[in-house]
């Protein structure tokens, strides 16, 4: 493996393992969850500001835990990023192929001959 590739792999492993090792012994604050997102924080703020507020609708399906909800959000983000990356790659390749093809000259118009 090339040295540059080895450095990239080491950096990725470090960026993955270091945060997990750093928070291994820390417990979440009382009344909070590890993976509570901004939706939950917004709900809590709305209930604090307007306790009589009624939601407009309820979700069709509620995930079993906030970890699963976070996983589904990350999966959605990964699929979206994959789609955008695929589209970008196809666009760049299509442009490169069009640039590499020789430009076709239009056929010369035959001159009119009167008989």
From TrEMBL:
Keyword presence, Membrane: yes
InterPro entries: CbiN (IPR003705)
A GO cellular component entry from the record: plasma membrane
Entries under Pfam families matching the protein: CbiN
One Gene Ontology term of the molecular function aspect: cobalt ion transmembrane transporter activity
Segments passing through the bilayer: 71-90
Broad class of where this protein is predominantly found: membrane
Pathway(s) where this gene product acts: Cofactor biosynthesis; adenosylcobalamin biosynthesis
Location within or outside the cell: Cell membrane
Subunit structure: Forms an energy-coupling factor (ECF) transporter complex composed of an ATP-binding protein (A component, CbiO), a transmembrane protein (T component, CbiQ) and 2 possible substrate-capture proteins (S components, CbiM and CbiN) of unknown stoichimetry.
Cited function: Part of the energy-coupling factor (ECF) transporter complex CbiMNOQ involved in cobalt import.
Matching HAMAP family: CbiN
Protein name: Cobalt transport protein CbiN
Source organism (scientific name): Malikia spinosa
Lineage: Bacteria, Pseudomonadati, Pseudomonadota, Betaproteobacteria, Burkholderiales
Gene that encodes the chain: cbiN
